[in-house]
Design goal:
The complex is a heterotrimer of chains A (about 170), B (about 375) and C (about 325). Chain A is of the alpha/beta class and about 170 residues long. Chain A has 4 helices and 7 strands. The chains are: A alpha/beta (about 170), B alpha+beta (about 375), C mainly alpha (about 325).
């Protein structure tokens, strides 16, 4: 169970199957970043497990990603995958981290962070989670998101001389 | 001797365990830097069968993406089918009729047995014993014949649809499955006597490739790899889907954390799958196999969806970002082999080369699902 | 003149025997493997696949002999021949029947072991001459395996020599009486550990002939190479034939030393047919073992020899000496 310290008031928790209390990162989340209308704001995103498949879905700043990973690591969660999404219309790239308890109760946490498309820098979590190494490498390769501090940001699935990011929406084969 | 002189004396050479393997892992290349017989650093290099399924997910409609699901992990295609079906049913709120759910479970478990049989056979062949592979193939042929009579394909299944399955099973299938179970159950103790108790095999598996639960957690390893390290985590129990809550089966967990434990988990899982199939056959209700009002062109509401199933190799999950159109905006496939093999680099440091290869085999990798 | 005719007859006989054996042992192995693995082996070529070796031979002979660029041509070409020669040479000393031996050597046993060691050397030559670093590694592994397993073999053979008092193979057989309980394997009056030393010798033979579970040199799935990877066509064919020839030699040695050679188990009609029966029975056991067991690791292999077989055979040697002295 995540220990709590105050949820941002403007986004109430919907009927979550497990009682959730946000934690220390609540203070960090509470400073909502000013963004345009179309992209999603930072904070708690209402999720319904039966509908979406996750229990807790939060969006945070890119520089808070490591702190979030530390909190979830100390809870004993595992990082299942790192996904990158290209929101070309909003000019942003999103990185989605999927956490779960591998060995205990069912609780899925999704942590998102959005970076600017022209300057996609986000700190890496591979010093905390070794599994993030490959996931981040692939996300960089497919979308061009630069994970600052990653030991080996080289081509992985694509050939070594690929100079394009295939999963970007403006990719022309 | 000074440390500088010592490090100059240590000569390492690079070995390429090439993409072409005599065993059936697939096209995996491992670049190994060796210090004599010990591995200094082993780096798996992927991408030899990368077909970019994730991009295909964006360019195809939801229905057109179905064949891709059979081609990811060709040995465990039913589970992948199940995940995709479950994902869209969760997104659109489609109710699956009960008969379809039971059929899904029966075929998925048959597929699991078949995948574990091949994993077992190919693993022992890796280690030099050629006979168990042939025995495993014999059993597998029966399963493949059964599934072919229902789905039409032997390996890359595309059997499930959103809302059910597309073809009902007939009595031949049911009697065939029961006959298979009756024949298969006594064979597993025979395999144990032939293979597991063999002192040479035990020498090669016991104590090889220890994986602590901590390293499994850090790398996101799931499936028999995790259950061989003592952690009881199976999506069928922890995050139940379909009709698994109504079926009675155990999750084999072994605490020894070595290759033998992972091997034993797979063997026991085969017997548990037999149990599941038997119960499902007994409980199979009559009724339709397809939900009624499934729209031809699916347009799930905007947002993220996530679904996870227990494939033969671990947790297979899909995350899709939908923008309300009839194609997905982003389709992410998280294959269990990807996370399982990612710990090879850290875990194989300092191992002897044959031990490292026995360890890699015990992770039961299937490369097409790793590379997608 | 008589001597010349006799020698020619034996040469032809050995060539025929060897040729048939080498070809058809492959058939036995594949059929045996098939039936152990719940399938039939070769069955299309000829009735029951009996013409399969012919087809294989034709295929191998029709292939182009490619010499790799980095290989040392002379060494590369001569290695398969060097492996085949000792195996064929040794047939001159094997007593198939009491008088059916091409040439009776008074030091027959030593000669057999000497030539068997040459085979080990030629494996290394093959591995080195291929110019492929994996073949070289495999070749060195095979050589160290050969050396490691020769020692218990020799020590056990010395035990037999101590009991018999002669190095002549025919003499060893003659001294084992007619009945099965007189054979060396059951000669408990000479050493209580005799059956176990038979097992030691048997295991060493499996290792010496480089067969599974001790086939590190050949089909190492690990390095995806063996010392005969770079060989195609008849070069490879010669390696395979040499393996079967070594198999025949190894099993006949076991038969001579432990199972009474051409003696009949019940004292009836001794003769070469008993020798062949025992030899083929042992060959069948070798094939059976090959398709049942997985491969050992390399250090497991060496550990078995150095840590278990050698001390045991030394103990057996001392025990036999004790028994002979005392009783």
């Amino acid at each position: 169970m995540l220990a709590a310290a105050g949820l941002p008031a403007e986004q109430p928790q919907e009927e979550a199957p497990v009682e959730v209390q946000a934690e220390g990162e609540g203070e960090a989340k509470a400073k909502a970043k000013k963004e345009e209308d179309v992209p999603r704001k930072n904070g708690l995103i209402e999720t319904d497990y039966a509908k979406r498949g996750t229990h807790l879905d939060v969006q945070i700043n890119p520089d808070q990603v490591v702190r979030a990973a530390e909190i979830l690591d100390s809870e004993g969660m595992t990082l299942e995958m790192v996904t990158g999404v290209d929101w070309i219309k909003e000019g942003q790239l999103e990185v989605i981290y999927d956490y779960s308890y591998s060995g205990g109760q069912l609780f899925r946490v999704v942590v998102r962070a959005r970076v600017d498309r022209n300057n996609p820098d986000i700190p890496t979590v591979c010093h905390l989670y070794g599994g993030a190494n490959w996931h981040e490498r692939e996300t960089w390769e497919m979308l061009g998101i630069n994970f600052v501090g990653h030991p080996q940001l080289e081509h992985f699935l694509l050939p070594e001389d690929a100079d394009f990011y295939p999963l970007r929406k403006d990719f022309k084969p | 001797m000074s440390s500088l002189a010592q490090s100059q004396l240590r000569e390492t050479f690079e070995l390429n365990i090439g993409p072409q393997h005599p065993a059936t892992h697939g096209v995996l290349r491992v670049k190994v830097v060796m210090d004599g017989e010990y591995i200094d650093r082993a780096e798996p290099i992927l991408g030899y069968i990368h077909r970019m399924h994730e991009k295909m997910g964006e360019n195809r409609t939801w229905n057109q993406f179905w064949p891709n699901m059979g081609r990811l992990d060709y040995l465990s295609a039913m589970a992948y089918n199940h995940c995709y079906a479950g994902l869209m049913e969760r997104a659109m709120g489609i109710e699956v009729p009960e008969r379809a759910e039971y059929i899904r479970v029966i075929t998925a478990e048959l597929n699991r047995i078949q995948s574990h049989l091949l994993g077992f056979g190919a693993y022992i062949m890796d280690l030099g014993g050629f006979t168990p592979l042939m025995y495993a193939m014999d059993e597998r042929e029966q399963i493949l014949d059964l599934l072919e009579s229902v789905t039409g394909s032997r390996l890359t299944y595309c059997y499930f649809r959103f809302g059910g399955v597309y073809n009902d099973i007939d009595d031949d299938f049911i009697t065939g499955t029961r006959a298979f179970l009756k024949r298969f159950r006594p064979q597993v103790p025979m395999y144990h006597k032939l293979v597991t108790g063999n002192v040479i095999l035990m020498d090669r598996l016991v104590g090889i490739g220890p994986l602590t639960p901590e390293i499994c957690r850090k790398y996101g390893a799931t499936g028999p790899v995790l259950r061989g390290s003592g952690i009881n985590y199976d999506i069928r129990r922890n995050e139940p889907y379909s009709v698994y809550p109504e079926l009675d089966f155990d999750i084999p967990v072994y605490k020894e954390c070595d290759s033998m434990a992972r091997y034993m988990v797979r063997m026991d899982e085969m017997l548990q799958s037999c149990r599941i199939i038997e119960q499902a056959l007994n409980k199979l209700p009559e009724g339709p196999v397809m939900a009624e009002k499934v729209p031809k062109a699916l347009k799930p509401p905007k947002g993220d969806y996530h679904y996870a199933v227990e494939a033969a190799r671990g947790t297979f999950s899909m995350r899709t970002v939908s923008d309300g159109t009839n194609t997905s905006y982003r389709m992410r496939l998280r294959s269990p082999t990807y996370s399982n093999v990612s710990l090879f680099e850290e875990a194989s440091r300092g191992m002897l080369l044959s031990d490292a290869l026995a360890f890699l085999g015990s992770l039961d990798p299937v490369i097409p699902e790793m590379d997608r | 003149m008589n001597e010349l005719i006799r020698l020619l007859a034996y040469m032809l006989g050995i060539a025929a025997f060897l040729g048939l054996n080498l070809a058809y042992l492959g058939w036995v192995e594949r059929k045996g493997a098939g039936h152990i693995q719940r399938r039939t082996g070769p069955k299309d070529v000829g009735p029951y696949g009996l013409l399969q070796p012919l087809a294989d031979g034709l295929k191998l002979m029709s292939k182009q002999l490619v010499v790799p660029d980095k290989a040392d041509k002379i060494i590369y070409m001569s290695a398969p021949v060097l492996i085949m020669v000792p195996a064929v040479l040794l047939f001159v000393a094997i007593p198939f029947g009491e008088h059916l031996v091409p040439r009776e050597f008074s030091f027959g046993l030593i000669m057999m072991f000497a030539f068997a060691s040459v085979a080990g050397l030629s494996i290394l030559i093959g591995g080195w001459g291929s110019g492929n670093k994996y073949s070289l590694i495999a070749g060195t592994r095979a050589v160290s395996q050969n050396i490691a397993y020769e020692i218990p073999m020799l020590i056990t053979a010395i035990t037999i020599v101590m009991i018999t008092g002669s190095l002549d193979l025919n003499e060893i057989i003659r001294q084992q009486g007619s009945y099965i309980w007189h054979w060396n394997i059951f000669r408990l009056d000479k050493s209580i550990l005799m059956p176990v030393s038979f097992l030691v010798f048997f295991i060493c033979s499996v290792a010496e002939t480089n067969r599974t579970p001790f086939d590190m040199g050949e089909c190492e799935g690990e390095l995806v190479a063996g010392y005969h990877t770079e060989y195609g066509g008849m070069g490879f064919g010669l390696y395979m034939m040499a393996e079967y020839a070594n198999l025949v030699i190894g099993t006949s040695l076991i038969t001579i030393l432990f199972l009474g050679g051409w003696q009949c188990p019940l004292g009836l009609l001794p003769g070469p047919h008993w020798f062949l029966i025992k030899m083929y029975f042992l060959i069948w056991v070798f094939v059976w073992i090959r398709w049942t067991f997985p491969r050992t690791t390399f250090w497991g292999l060496l550990n078995l020899s150095w840590k278990y077989l050698i001390p045991f055979s030394l103990v057996n040697l001392l025990l036999t000496a004790l028994f002979i002295k005392v009783f």
